């Protein structure tokens, strides 16, 4: 999801489209036996992750970006 959001994919449909556009590239690094997940599947999976995790992750992500610029 990281690359998708960096590429300005702002919702689950845009993330699915982005990943489909990169499918050949992704297959160099990932096994995708069931194809690229649909936007519905992505949304369901990420909805299962507790909000506290996302808050912590976003904080660490921002901190890593700031420290990378130092």
UniProtKB/TrEMBL annotation:
<dbReference type="Pfam" id="PF13808">
    <property type="entry name" value="DDE_Tnp_1_assoc"/>
</dbReference>
<dbReference type="InterPro" id="IPR051698">
    <property type="entry name" value="Transposase_11-like"/>
</dbReference>
<dbReference type="InterPro" id="IPR032806">
    <property type="entry name" value="YbfD_N"/>
</dbReference>
<protein>
    <submittedName>
        <fullName>Transposase family protein</fullName>
    </submittedName>
</protein>
<feature type="domain" description="H repeat-associated protein N-terminal">
    <location>
        <begin position="3"/>
        <end position="58"/>
    </location>
</feature>
